[in-house]
User: Fold DUF3445 domain-containing protein from Rhodococcus gannanensis.
Amino acid sequence: MTAVALPARVVGFPFPFPHETYRYSTNVEPAGTRAVTAAGGWGEHPVDVDEYYRDELVERDRVLAADPSRFQALPHMDVAQWETMTTLMRMLADAHPDRFSLTRIGSEWHWRNGELGWEQSFVPGDPDTLPEPPLRYIGRQVQEDIVLLDQRQGALWGDAGLVTFAADWSLRFDVGMSFLQIHGPVPRVHEEGVIPRAQQFLMGLQAGQRYRRTNWTLTVDRRLDTATETYPDWGRDRRLLAEGPLADVGRRLHLRVEVQHLIRLGASNAILFLIRTHMLPLEDVALVPEWAQRLHDILVELPDDIADYKGITRTRGPGIDWLREYAGTHN
Ligand code: HEM
Assistant:
């Protein structure tokens, strides 16, 4: 197939299009197994440490310092916060025992993050043993954005989170809302039953069960923070890209894919929702010709209301034009 070795960012990229067209669906599958792609694969670990680890965590800290409201936690989520922290620490230690460890002597636990050079002894449930709330502390050590959902009154509620890399939504606005309310602005999914079905599915998850799904959009440049709050900083780039030279599109326009994990926590009964954002410029997508052709075809066929909601009305044209030379090249 490919003569030159593909870079790691391509080999591990979660290319999200198994079908020739794209529609919203309750696309969940069990987590923890490697998903195979034309370039390699992804998905062995729910928490994925890659070459961007340090840079992305510096970026998370920058965003958090500029806007502390990217961390939210309602008071009844304390138990879930602690459980999230210890769960994610265990996942990191299991996936990369050389760099992360979690040990326990009696009631005292010890955490070591060799990647960042952090060490911390703590007693779960005792806030005085941590420098900051547990969800904020662990969120600053994983590349994933985090939302915690409480389950009560036959519904799910987004009652805590640390989200610095949102694709055009706002945690501060959404915190305390129900799962159905959070998805209020998404077209089609309510009439088609996608969201009510997803909620039923999630409410039925048993302790320890893990599922995953993907979502995608297009982003100009490798900009992780495209939250509603910073729209004035990034909104116009879509128009400027569309008005600029086509030659820039391959380098600047990125396929942005979220790998989302859904995990039932056993003690708090909360659902841990992890959102990991991967970005690949079109010129890297084109290193895998079948990806370039598939993305081209998906963008051409995508209905306008979905394109509008994804915020790609201006950029999909330039994307299609740049990818056109790959259309029909691969069968
Ligand atoms: C957006 C489906 C789980 C929060 C969306 C979209 C879909 C969707 C189709 C539109 C995406 C786009 O056009 O790019 C689902 C399904 C889920 C699920 C099927 C589970 C099986 C969750 C969970 C949360 C969540 C657990 C956490 C609270 C959001 C948010 C948005 C969104 C904040 C953006 C809404 C906005 O524009 O304000 N979801 N989702 N989703 N989802 Fe989910």
